Fold this protein.
Amino acid sequence: MSTLAVDPTTPPAVKPARKSFGARELVSRYGVLVAIVLTFLIFSLLRPDSFLTRLTLLGILRDCVPLLMVALGVTVVMVMNQFDLSVGGLTSLLAVFVVVALSSEYWGFNYWVAILLTLALGAALGSLSGIAVAYLRLPAFILTIALSTVYAGVGLQLTDSNSVFSGIPSGFVDIASGTLFGISNQVYIGAVVLALLHVLMRHTEPGRYMYAIGGNVEAARLAGVRVRVLIASGFAIVGLTAAISAILLSSQAGASNPNAGLGQLLPAYAAAFLGSSLFRVGVFTPVGTAIGALYLQMIGSGLTLLNLSGPMVSIIQGGILVAAIGISRLARGSR
Amino acid sequence: MSQPYVRCRELVKQYPGVRALDGASLDVREGEILGLLGKNGAGKSSVIKVLAGLVQPDSGTLEVSGNLVKSGYGPRTAYELGLAFVHQELNNVPDMTVAENVTLGTSYPRRAGVLIDHRRMRREVAKLLDRLSIDVDPNAYVGSLSATQQRLVMIARALHHDARVLVLDEPTVSFTDHEIQHLHQLIRGLRDVGHGIVYVSHRIAEVKALTDRVVVMQDGRDVCDRRTDELDEAAMIEAITGKPAPISVRRTVSALDKHDVPVLRVRNLNAPPRVRDVSFDLHAGEVLGLVGLVGSGRSEVARLIFGADPLVGGTIEVDGKQFRPRNPTAAIANGIGLLPEDRRHEGLVANFSVRANISLASLRRHRWTWTPFTRRSSELLATSRVGTELALKTASSETMVGDLSGGNQQKVVIARWLEADSRILIFDEPAQGVDVGAKEEIFRLIERLAQSGRAIIVISSDFSELIRVCTRVVGIREGRVTGELQLPELAEDSLVRLAYADDASPSSTGRMLG
């Protein structure tokens, strides 16, 4: 297959990866896949009547979408070795904002206008942290944590900490609750966003540059890559995906919930990390993240069917994140 | 004469492709200042690393204080045996005070066995600084001090624990004459109270003035061990360079019309303190060498032209047109390409394929028309074309670039710039970490690129490499141009003079020393 000048007499300078598979390599390579299959089997065996049904499985597919949106945005910045921990607060704020914008009790915009405003606000706030990180060189970690609490606070303030139920047109609720060919609209939305980001990261110039920045930021800069513009854009994408997630959450609930997004931060990162141990180890990809998000949702739904308590679910999800990080570390070490 | 405190015998250290030490022997005596000389890569720093316990030699012996050093000798043991090191890099903690830095890693004075007694610590450090006549406030934050003061603080730190032997690696980089005098006085004082000193420096005049004995290293071996007063500066230079290396065949300067507009014209480039008033011209078809020691500012000049570092003053013209290199993107658009010194950290994206590394600076060419989507087939075609041209050896175009040999990695970076249509190529240490055969191949490639009309700048610490490939050489020392040499004058000793020249005033040829 080689198209380059390959000299048959000289062996490659570095031998290809070891052929023998150690336990370490096995775990790092296929650990997540094995875990997914095992989990699926366990739930199927324990709850054959309720887990293995069309309703449950489609439900998993549907319920993972809001998380997937945030996780996909997070993936884009993680590709560039950046963090955005403001997604929790940002999603909460935007979830309230969209309802406030469209509710006849508040601003009463047409709900499509409200949706556009929400997307724009998400992108703007994301860009803001992006500019602060890329151009002002503020440390992303602490900056985005701080912003998260600001956003969450503003979200609560908008409605005096109340949930808004009334004045919401049914058209808005139908966005998340409606179905097409028996499958929730959310699944289609999730698939479209996933496809867009997959193409962006995998098949476009900016996507290639983003991976180059993550691989070696100085080499990328010296190859003419506009590092700062791309990092700022990455944060803008996080803002957009947080907005989509927020719109879906509010539409699904038919109400505003000022705490809607706070629980998404950790699972979003867990999904990205799980995904990064799937294909090429240590490389974050939208498709990997999607599989990670599905897995987390499957566990969430499965544990509910097993009647496990909320705290139990969070213990297990947290444990999975630790395991995912450990696996991807292990995988990187063996390279 | 007293028994040497440190005694190295026949040290050998082999790295992949390089024999860093090849039978080096060295004695360090108490009450003596030893000058350690040698070109870059002659093995000076390797010997020091062995002494410091940072590197284990493959063979050879090391005795400290009359005891043979066993395996498991590390930085901690070196420290306990009374060896102290002031390395070239300023590794101190800027956000801590002078007193805290001086006592760092040594046992702090304590109260009640646990709490650090800050007052006593400050008093002790003040006394030490006073004894060394170092005029620095123990309460000042180290980050607020000048580079010179920071180095003095590091010397104080090395001496806080009662070291018997103090090793100073290039301690006077960025020092003024006055500061050098002060440091030398301090060192002589230490010798007179019985410390042994190893003074590593490129500055021959300083070594001549300060030291009692000189050891010269060449190719990982000690080639000269004499009392300083038996050697003059010229003899030291001769010992450093050894016999002139046989100059290999080649030498065709492509027709070079000096009346042409230079491809690159650099005037009064300034970015103090590393680069001051650097001017030169570069013509098409020319291979211009920048000769200078590590830290002379030669790499900084390259980075300024490429827009990698901010330019403070001066003008750059490309093809007679003013060009301000605001960032690498602008430089690339003007046909400039840089092959950085640190290939791994600045040149390559290790977890990218050969293909993606090559197309990184020219990806916009591989798009479907009017779309942002990249065309893999077009990338593959380009990779294969340029790969064949450069005789790039790789298992496939999808091989991770980190898995290639040094020489082939270098070719990948060259290929990137050829694909980006760079007409001005700056090679910073192109042969570093590349084995001998690949080295020659890269030189031939550089010549071919020049013959095809590109203009080339080569930076190297290895004078024989510059002699091998350059048609003209500009010397740089302490950020200034020291002179210029044309092809027939290029020889190891003339280059040494350009690089070491003590007088930094510009002149048409290198000045004679001593």
Summary: The first strand of chain B starts at residue 6 and ends at 15.
